[in-house]
## 1
Amino acid sequence: MVSEFSVRAASVEDAPCLAVAERETARTPGLLRSTPAELSDVAFATRIEQLESPGMRGRYLVAVDARGALVGHALLDPMPLIQCAHVFRLTIVVHPGHTSRGVGRVLMNALLAWASEHERLEKIELLVRSTNARAIRLYESCGFVAEGRLRRVIKLPSGDYVDDIAMAWHRIEQ
Ligand SMILES: CC(C)(COP(=O)(O)OP(=O)(O)OC[C@H]1O[C@@H](n2cnc3c(N)ncnc32)[C@H](O)[C@@H]1OP(=O)(O)O)[C@@H](O)C(=O)NCCC(=O)NCCS
């Protein structure tokens, strides 16, 4: 099936829009690790510059709809230490109002296609809140497996705790 969404490399000009969408997402407790105040436009621009600069240390993609409007973003960020340089960290956020319409799958497919071709990348890691069934189902369907549980690592404004699940994708197992 042809998706109504397409994917392109992020540009620094996208940063304010991505930051707004992620801050809005972060207003719902239990989805992201960050709170809205911890997500600055500058940090988004810096990350895009780092990952999409010539030589491409990693990958920072955005999903756009048929009109070119941004509907999601996802990135693979390599770990800095030499002995972990084969491991990349994944982040994905489909923008509010656009979830459960296939955007997440389009972004994951594009990132994993890039990962499969990247000479250094062997493993992708992510952390997902244990209560985020939608995200866990997407990751499992893309070949990610649970590798551990970080108990009571998130403390919500309500005072309730949430665990994180550490999941990973190993190229050798795909
Ligand atoms: C989690 C997230 C990335 C999934 O992307 P999405 O665009 O909403 O999901 P898609 O429509 O592409 O669906 C992909 C899969 O996710 C799962 N899924 C999607 N919507 C779901 C829902 N409402 N309930 C349960 N599972 C759901 C299904 O397994 C689905 O596969 P299928 O269509 O073959 O059944 C997206 O919802 C999101 O960014 N949410 C807010 C931020 C967040 O939770 N980020 C992840 C932090 S670790």
## 2
Amino acid sequence: MTPSPDFWKPRTVPTMYFIGVTTAKSSIMKVFPKWSDILKLGAQIEGYDALIHAPAEDYRAIVRHIKEDPLSMGALVTTHKIDLLDATRDMFDYLDPHAQFCGEVSSISKLDGKLVGHAIDPISSGLAWEAFVEPGYWGRTAAHVMCLGAGGSAVAISVYLANRPDPADRPRKFIVVNRSPGRLESLQKIQAQLKTDIEFEYIHNQDPIVNDSIMSALPAGSMVINATGMGKDTPGSPITDKGLFPEQGIAWELNYRGELDFMHQAERQVENRGVRVEDGWIYFLHGWTQVVAKVFHLNLTPELFTELDRAAASIRS
Ligand SMILES: NC(=O)c1ccc[n+]([C@@H]2O[C@H](COP(=O)([O-])OP(=O)(O)OC[C@H]3O[C@@H](n4cnc5c(N)ncnc54)[C@H](OP(=O)(O)O)[C@@H]3O)[C@@H](O)[C@H]2O)c1
């Protein structure tokens, strides 16, 4: 986990960091060099692996390094979005409104010598959502969302949903389940400030059998999201193999790599329960392209996104 002493030396080429848990295994390590060529950045990417809920000093060390080293251009943050901002808030010169509201940063960049933090996930999770949930879905089905995990992604997805203008694009109910009560309380405070008719329910639980029973009570068509990191950051799944997904429902695993136990549990119910299964690849693409655009100050046009998407797809297959 501790990077080598060389990690902290000033960079000789423009460097973007990926702050995560198992960064070497991410597809971005192969995708980024291709994107750097397409975008003519002459840049490299380096991973920084931190323990889940790492000590504040670890987060401060990496943010200090980015801030002080001229060729350290910025970073994408996953999993640590909330904890990192809690530990380093005073080091940022500017936090965008989403970062302030959601209490998280997924993008660290620099502008005119200032350190800038953005919360990209309310945008990138929404772009990913719209790629597989058709307009009017929630009005047509009156279905609910059950989100396992109340971390940065759960905050972002709920903020995105609350801001959807058409009532038919908002679920009536959004149930959040989390292992620690603290994250549920923080989420509740954020959601209390949202002007929305979505009904939020908060459940403190980490017993997969209880999650199965909550899931079994959902109306047909409901979506179950695995936002716990289980199946990638930690082993297992938040539900058991006996858990029944909603009939004609949607299972969204936020990750695209790892054991993905939750996703495989859902895949076994595609035929008999009509479950639709989505992984985190599109979310990954939107998140990374948005943050690369912030870090290198690019205009991410739809045409450019398509080109980067194509280059990434060639590596995935
Ligand atoms: N595809 C993509 O591009 C993409 C984008 C964003 C996120 N992700 C992935 O999505 C996952 C979640 O991201 P995040 O940023 O939201 O992480 P996070 O802030 O660490 O949140 C994870 C939450 O899940 C809770 N949790 C863990 N195990 C649980 C269990 N068994 N039951 C209930 N709650 C549990 C944790 O609770 P505690 O408070 O007890 O720790 C924590 O609040 C990560 O693996 C991340 O890599 C992927």
